[in-house]
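Section 3.1: Structural characterization of target chains.
Under the original work plan, the team committed to producing a structural model for every single-chain target entering the pipeline before any wet-lab resources were allocated. The record below documents one such target. The sequence was received from the expression subgroup and is listed exactly as submitted; it comprises 142 residues.
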Amino acid sequence: MNYAKYRKIRSEEDRKEYMRNYQKNYRKRAVNNSKQVNTPLAMSTNSISRSNKSTCSNSDGFELFWDAYPKKRNKQSARKAWDKIKPTESMQEKILAVLPSLASSRDWSKENRQFCPLPATWLNAGGWDDEIVAQQDTRDFV
């Protein structure tokens, strides 16, 4: 705000009126800017059709992943994560190949799968690239 312009407005009532108008215009600009970003017309039709194609081609892969994943919670979040990583066929094969060994691992199966990450968390973290540690029996026999 220009201080010199503000100081020219002498009376307190004039200053309040000026600030009301200033805030009103500021809010209008903020609302208009947020509407422009979120309107479907602002998005190109090409990006819409491309996103639908990628979702359709990966939906069957997601269903295979969902069936293989041991902890079935927050399916919508998992689908968003799946669509975000946009796995290729080779990546889908790798993900599906890793899941059985992880599902049977001690960390994922102990205490009613308490330490098994949610599917969206596992996908966002790139869990299929993690090193699989072989199970070792740590009990001492006497």
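Confidence is low (pLDDT under 50) at residues 37-56.
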